[in-house]
Fold these 2 entries.
Entry 1:
Amino acid sequence: MKVTVVGAGHVGATTAQRIAERSIADVYLVDIVEGLATGKALDLAEAAPLVGHSSVITGGTEYDPAEGSDVVVVTAGVARKPGMSRDDLLTTNGRIVSGIIEEIARVAPNAIIIMVTNPLDVTTHIAMEVSGHSRERVMGMAGALDTARFRAFIGMELGCSPVDVQAMVLGGHGDSMVPLASSATVGGVPITQLIDPERLEEIVQRTRDGGAEIVGLLKTGSAFYAPSAGVTDMVASILRDEGRIMPASVFLQGEYGIEDTFVGVPVRLGRGGVEHIIEVKLAEAELTALHASAAHVRETVDTWERLS
Ligand code: APR
């Protein structure tokens, strides 16, 4: 198995590390900056005997070595600075992503593409249009991250392992995301029985602001440990045909009453990519929030189409 990771910055390099160290696949890391991907790939390869894995990790600036990739993860682009929204990255990252996907479609036409570059739902839309792939083979990583943040915050609140927290965050990867508090559980117990509504609303809001909280602390970049963990879980589920259920940004064509828009909903990920879109019965307020989130993504796509 082979995974190409485009962008050898914080998210890309950490993703390469996680994929290699979990022995999921060999990794080709590519970046526009001369020496960056080659150097990080070499450093990771030199760690292999210590960590104890046999994944082959290489890097470069060229796209030809990506030939034959089963999955391509795109993390290239600029990250947020304090005070910026993900949408502020649209013009720069939209152009970067278009160019990259053209190359990927040329050298690895059969690869499944997972987008990480923000604004996530829009870059995923661009990736599908430029590649011409079916919607099963282009998706965005956001829900896995947003859900992990929600689970982590619930675990912190209850003083329990976040592993035992089950929860779901739907919608676009932005301020309009929809954490589903009503269906979250810990060890099978509904969290609505364990956390009072006001406190739960604060946790929901912290989840929405989770990315900005990290940007505010780091000041010169955005989160990368949790994003790389999210995308690695998606890659593993696809390449190992695990059939895991997790939210991902996928192109809806009527599901949830949403047309032709990428938005985060639960899916089953297997060797075919997005193998099934799961339609959860949502409370009315949740469905309204999901529609508002989708409308925001649609507006940003329209802005991109006017710009390009
Ligand atoms: N082709 C290849 N690599 C590129 C290109 C390009 N056209 N343009 C930029 N890059 C590379 C940069 O050289 C840099 O190494 O993308 C990398 C981005 O790394 P960081 O600046 O460290 O950003 P990172 O934190 O990894 O975030 C990347 O993921 O989570 C999102 O919002 C985040 O959009 C951002 C992306």
Note: The longest helix spans residues 284-307.
Entry 2:
Amino acid sequence: MNERDSESIHSFLQASGFDMVDNETSADVIILNTCSVRELAELKALGKLGYLARRNIVLCVLGCMAKNLAEEIKKRVPGVDIILGPGDYSKIGDYIEDIISGRRTFIIDVDSPGAENNLDMDSMHNVTQRQSSAFVSIMSGCNMRCSYCIVPKTRGTERYRAMEDIILEINKLADNGIKEVTLLGQIVNRYGFRQIEQKDGKSAFVQLLEKIHEVPGIKRIRFTSPHPVGFHRDLIDCYKNLPKLCSQVHLPAQSGSNRILKAMRRAYNRDDFIKIVQALRDTVPSISVSTDLIVGFPGENDDDFSETCSLFDEARFDMAFIFKYSDRRGTVAASMPDQVPRDVKEYRNAVLLKKLATHSKAYNDKMLNTLQMVLVEGKARRGENIFQGRANNHRKVLFPGDDLDVGEFVDVRITSSAVTTLYGEKI
Ligand code: 5AD
Ligand code: SF4
């Protein structure tokens, strides 16, 4: 999501006459687009800010940390010129001009009143030549109250973009050569909740997927992240009815223990979760299933953790983001008793990472000798004339290719596999 936000910030600045430089040392203006989901991200950003504040530049902090820690940033890093919270980034060009011209010496804007109405400004993209894939925001904010999470505080309540605007944007992207879109939102399957009526038993999100499916030029559709609550039959059926929908789902589980899920205020249990995964696998047997898991949530004991381990095996996650629980001031979990010691979190994290490597390799091994349609992203970091792209299930595939392949679909036969990457040959 931040990557997408940075892209629209880039577009706004370009429209105001600014140019992007290719390295930080020659920049006159530096924008840090920050995240507050975990403390480590904030600490890193604060460290970087302290370092940058010594230079004679216009220094801006945007994103969730701007909202979450505005006063602290102001106090601890006097060199910061602009603090702008998530929401209405269209003002950034004017704000920088204000600082450069000396009209203002410091700007803080973390409760942007325009933010609620400004979702359509989101449609600014910077499609470069031969780029084939784009992120599209369909909503922002979150109405859930997961007890560990800072997002509802930093991003506010849910706002949904109008379906026509999203379709218009995707049509424009397709006209500019985009072949794959990834729909973004804190909970994409809540799109239009209580605002757009169900039609033939189909949620607003499913209606949106169907409309996007009709856009000529768009060959692949992905989305992230859905919530297990609201992942109903109509959405599962899309994997059968909409061939452009990729065989991949990222479904955050957070924990395998019913007790912890309850304390996290996730309104589903382990069984509900398994049933969704099973229904998805029944529909698309080779589907890639990834997740988010938190280890060391307050009160998580060995039994709870074993439940998460067994969920990992039962759901056969082939990809996962595993997070050590991080205390976020102002959240309900921050004041819960039985905070888990750091070394226990480290241990549980390591156990799950090991499990992940095993599952991921097993999943990749099943792809050996198959033919995959790969959407080519560009040159791989290593190796002469080695290119990289994504299979339909989002697995990374490396193969010897040439420059003309970039941005195109190429048929690749998979010849070997590692934990995260597959290797193959063009046919
Ligand atoms: N500590 C650790 N991980 C967190 N996440 C959200 N809040 C926290 C926290 N306080 C994780 C969740 C979510 C992902 C984006 O970040 O797993 O799905
Ligand atoms: Fe945070 Fe829960 Fe909303 Fe996801 S659903 S953004 S974890 S509050």
Note: The mean pLDDT is 94.
